[in-house]
Give the backbone structure.
Amino acid sequence: MSAAAGRTPLEVDVAIVGGGLVGASLAAALAGSPLRVLLVESVPLGAGDQPSFDERTTALGNASRRIFEGLGVWAAIVAEAAAIRVIHVSDAGRFGFARLTAAEQGIEAFGYVAANRRIGAALWERLGAAANLALRVPARVQNVAIAREAVRFEVVAESAAAMAPEPVVARLVVAADGAHSQMRIAAGIGAQLEDYDQVAMVANVASDAPHEGTAYERFTAGGPLALLPLHDGSRAVVWACRPAHAAELLALDAAGFLAQLQERFGWRAGRFVRAARRFSYPLKLMRAAAPVATRTVLIGNAAQALHPVAGQGFNLGLRDAAMLAEVIANASGDPGSPELLERFSAWRAQDRRGVVGFTDSLVKLFGDRRFGVAALRDLGLLLFDLTPPAKGALARVSGGFGGPTPRLARGLPVRRV
Ligand SMILES: Cc1cc2nc3c(=O)[nH]c(=O)nc-3n(C[C@H](O)[C@H](O)[C@H](O)COP(=O)(O)OP(=O)(O)OC[C@H]3O[C@@H](n4cnc5c(N)ncnc54)[C@H](O)[C@@H]3O)c2cc1C
């Protein structure tokens, strides 16, 4: 018999497992709603091993900016974010390149680059103030039993003074626990995995030239290399390379790393002069076999984990969170009913398919070094540079790939009052 047996269960409408970028955003979107919400997160904000709010930076598109404005967290994020006003895309060793400016598109910026830790701090501050949210951190979920009427599980606090597990009954469980989601497994949902045989090396670097809001994407033989502008004038490097090369890069001292970066990227961003600590992330495409199951819904990386080449993973997951909040916060009945989950799933399908397909084909098209393919890429980049409609299309990428747009992303409150 479980240690939690006999205790009165905590009854909630929605239990969110995982309070990283996407789960915390969903909780923030449900803050102040009539729903009773539980958020269980295994690693506290600020801990060295927090996997979502780590040393990375995230490029947020304009739809994400609007969602965060609606959640009341944007002011805290933008205070330490850099605007992307120019995007420069090139193919190493080839002549084609494209340059897009926000001004030409009639927009203020293509997006904003913010530190994951800053986004986490803004979101979690909002969660602490909401009376309808119960937060369990650090804690994990165990003994999950999913039935037609409800999901039952126990929450185990990870604190030193071990307490008896807390029984919970939820009408809906949201898996927001990342690419290796335990909740997805508990719900019996499989996943398709494709290994890109690439590792993303991430580091912040400084150069002797101002970034002027320019984001660079350079496709190289080993994988794409992105340079993003940062608030403090430095740049975030996201360099996808073969695992053996990544291991070499990690082993180099700062000067050796900067020399390799300079050689691979060229001189468009000036001379690289300083590098902060380097981190690495293996890159895989993960797609859950189904977006929903009985009283369970998957969002963010638990549903789809992407290559960072187009900076779309979180932007997509945030739209998942915004749409889920809208569907359940505006429903009068059971938030875990099959009809509601099917509606969420149908409304998100096109955007999810579009972003996953776009990102995957970008990795494959630019990863193919055969001559004909390279020439086609050059042509593509040149045409892209010359034809304004194509540029407009890229500028719209940040808004989503179709299907209904969440109310928050349209500047409206979550609830239709
Ligand atoms: C190098 C790199 C750069 C990227 N850059 C961008 C970018 O510029 N723009 C963009 O849009 N996306 C970017 N992404 C993608 C983005 O980081 C992910 O899409 C995002 O982290 C997904 O958030 P998530 O909350 O779904 O999952 P995660 O970030 O994985 O968070 C999962 C959370 O769940 C918690 N958790 C896990 N298991 C449990 C459990 N059993 N119980 C309780 N809690 C649990 C974890 O501690 C964590 O807090 C990038 C990714 C990489 C690798």
Residues 17-23, 40-43, 51-52, 56, 58-59, 140-141, 176-178, 182, 200, 202, 238, 281, 300-301, 308, 311-315, 317 surround flavin-adenine dinucleotide (CB under 6 Å). The chain is about 35% helix and 30% strand. The longest strand covers residues 191-207. The mean pLDDT is 91.
